[in-house]
Write a structure and sequence with these properties.
The structure is a single chain. By secondary structure, the protein is mainly alpha-helical. The chain contains ten helices and no strands. Helix 5 runs parallel beside helix 7.
Length: about 170
Amino acid sequence: QSLAQQGKIQDAEQQILIAVQLTPNDPGIRLNLAQIYAAGKKWPQAQKEFEQTLRLDPRNPTSLGQFADFLVARNESADAIARVQQFVNDNPNDANGHVILGALKFQSKDYRTAQAELEHAIQIDPKNMQAYLRLGKVFYAQGQTDFALSRYHATLDQQPRLAPTHS
């Protein structure tokens, strides 16, 4: 991963491929490989590895979120939403899944659905700071500044040292 951050994509890829040979069923290593392929603009290989990561660990919202980001960057937002919606359907009590879906709906300017997903995430996990922050953005985007501020204040009450609420 550090090689990729230094711009040495080929070296990073070679190192990760060795790790994949040693532990082919490690979703973390597969996720790293997907990220390296994406950084190297090897889109089909990246998608294959993201999908493999989710097959190995289907309940991992980090992998799902990164895969959704990859799809959105590739102008495949509808596919990202469909995949995250399926995750939420399969894992209705996973607050992070609802946060990811809410974020995708926000990006597509479906504010009503984004709000519902983020509020649901907060019901599931009242300490999920990302849900509060993103809900504040939804209200702000709709010109509901007072509601946005109330979400940010709720976040600040939960996590007084959280940097994004101080900016």
